[in-house]
Amino acid sequence: MLKIAYDPIYAHPLPEGHRFPMLKYELIPAQLLHEGVIGKDNLFSPGLLDEDIILRTHDKNYWHQLRDLTLSPKEQRRTGFPLSARLVEREIRIAKGTIDGCRYAFESGVAFNVAGGTHHAGSNWGEGFCLLNDQAIAANYLLDSELTKAILIVDLDVHQGNGTAEIFENEPRVFTFSMHGANNFPYRKERSDLDIPLQDGVSDDEFLEILQSTLPGLIEQHKPGFIFYLSGVDVLATDKLGKLALSKEACKTRDLFIFEQCFKHHIPVQVSMGGGYSPQIKDIVEAHCNTFKAAIDVYF
């Protein structure tokens, strides 16, 4: 059975005026339920995460500043959010949902987190709506638990996974692959194991050709026992923060290709949704829902 991490706190951790980026987290499961794509038994609400698991990935001083709500105003502005206990709880539950999703993925091949993809959070910083790096925390959890010996992180958000790259810079068991807009935030990039910066306005065909000619070789070369997929839909032409020009159809083709490769090679995959900032919320929700539908087409 497909299992999907979701909790209402994903959508409502912020005061009025900061909620637009969060609305999709409520609307995605609602739309999937409305269409009959999933049932309520597909959804699970993650609990809290032990501090020692967070500290395997994030610097102790940084985590304590988050936990104790003592980040400086400048550091809070970098995250894009006003810091609050509810926001920190949200980040902890997202990370726990990604870890739990990994266990479900070992059972059924694939699992989702409605939120997550918080790839701008580095070991000792938060930025770009990211405070704790959910997939990095989960990857370290898998390694520490000896559930896998090699991990591939496939980050197809329009923004480079700079925090993820920094966290795993000296970890040979985790290969970080980021395919992103060259001129998009973050303007100071970190170095992934493989970065493919794309020029503004990249079309469907060009994007898909690059991906389809790259990923199979990475799988063959590094033989991962687990894959994390960050499926941002800020690659859409309609996205107000992204500078690429993909259609919804190309996004779904992208997702199908990822899942087909994982299925073909019997590699469990955990999916976090990443960014999406089109002016019309319906475009964001539809594109994200297509990712779930692509996984169901391949696995179920």
UniProtKB/TrEMBL annotation:
Residues 22-290 form the Histone deacetylase domain. Keywords: Hydrolase. CDD domains: HDAC_classIV (cd09993). InterPro entries: HDAC_classIV, HDACs, His_deacetylse_dom, His_deacetylse_dom_sf, Ureohydrolase_dom_sf. Belongs to the histone deacetylase family. This is Histone deacetylase.
